């Protein structure tokens, strides 16, 4: 059996998959036989992994489970002692819990309402059109991730933050070092993060001198309900966090979503026949994603029971939202991609007080891209067999290295 708590062999986590678009076989075994499994992280430290829908939802929604902080005896995610997305100065400069976190979320969240995202959608579609024009001009086969999946979310988040998207390759490198599990050395991470902080601090100074119509300009002058302003350190960290979260996950998701839809041509044909399914198809792609990355770590400051297992204070729990999204007790036909599934209460964006702030933005981008692709490239297909797609490795986010397509 997998991942025992009884002295059996311990699973390494993240659990590798044998196919780019398929979940590891261990997920189903863990849900059925070992819902709280002991795992070894890339750092060598141990953690407890939860994979059932109700357990993941419980942990993510319970305020007693907190984000790991420098002061905790939490398991380290990667061998690099600092600079990762879970334990960097950036992460620590943003209030991690309680009222401080909620105030920060309220200040940021008003920029990410569904209404505001809907207003941005025509611009997203126009940018997608331009990127597809460029891709058509270069001819096929093309890499959909490099041609469309990556540049579109970068352009959107840079526009929101008021930073030049011409710096996007640099942002991508800085993001990757923050998301490191096993790819970069500590020296590379430290150097990249120092550059990232300097860049964002200079950008905020420039916005303070000459404000624009962007999120950061508003945050510099904005106050919370108590009249408090964000500190410079929090502004820098917020800019960094939004830049990383705003492009990396969505860029990867665009590639994975299109690959999933083209892997079984009947899915693409179903959308061509009924465009009203785009919204539910995006939600199902988010649920069905077998390669989302690390998941969400939580630290336990007191003894709590999960799935009949008593977890001691000081336990680091890793929530696999993707494994939970394949739980048959929560979703009928959980291992089938059903483009009209409704309702679809997937956990791709987490749950509770720390659920993804940018989920309206991500949903809007994914819907916009899919609408434009269906309209412009109805004959789109994968240019390689599905088994020749390869996962991104060594980072905390999941994705495909490339998505070769033709039309």
UniProtKB/TrEMBL annotation:
Residue stretches spanning the membrane: none
For this UniProt record, the keywords arranged alphabetically read as follows:
Heme, Iron, Metal-binding, Monooxygenase, Oxidoreductase
One Pfam match:
p450
Q: Does the keyword Metal-binding apply?
A: yes
Q: Which InterPro entries match?
A: Cyt_P450 (IPR001128), Cyt_P450_B (IPR002397), Cyt_P450_CS (IPR017972), Cyt_P450_sf (IPR036396)
Identify the domain of life.
Bacteria
| Cofactor(s) of this protein | heme
Q: Which GO terms describe its molecular function?
A: heme binding; iron ion binding; monooxygenase activity; oxidoreductase activity, acting on paired donors, with incorporation or reduction of molecular oxygen
Task: State the PANTHER family in the record.
Answer: CYTOCHROME P450 BJ-1 (PTHR46696:SF5), P450, PUTATIVE (EUROFUNG)-RELATED (PTHR46696)
Family, per the entry? Belongs to the cytochrome P450 family.
Name the record gives this protein: Cytochrome P450
